[in-house]
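Worked example 2:
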Amino acid sequence: QVQIVESGGGLVQPGGSLRLSCAASGFVLDYYAIGWFRQAPGKEREGVSCINSVNGDTSYADSVKGRFTISMDNAKKTVYLQMSSLSPEDTAVYFCAVDHPLSSCTEADAWGSWGQGTQVTVSS
């Protein structure tokens, strides 16, 4: 059974930084994709950034390009999302998901395994 545990959320002031972690276990795939998604109140879940273990290719939503960086420790099946220059618009519950390497970061509904999410609040 796939287990996904997110951590690192919290309250941060505008302009600040946070690093989220996603630890995945319980799956036997040699190649996979791990993605970060977020959902703000009243809004649909959206893809933030994704990475695959095949070649390390990454993708980012336009709204976070240049501010967020995704990285992977393949041996630990752990993915990190370094977030900087945070603004109140980044406030959301951030979820981590795992699926096959061709999974699209823009199609959240297609991802099969999800964590419980971690709250990120950007406020002064």
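Residues 32 and 113 are 12 Å apart (CA to CA). The first strand starts at residue 3 and ends at 7.
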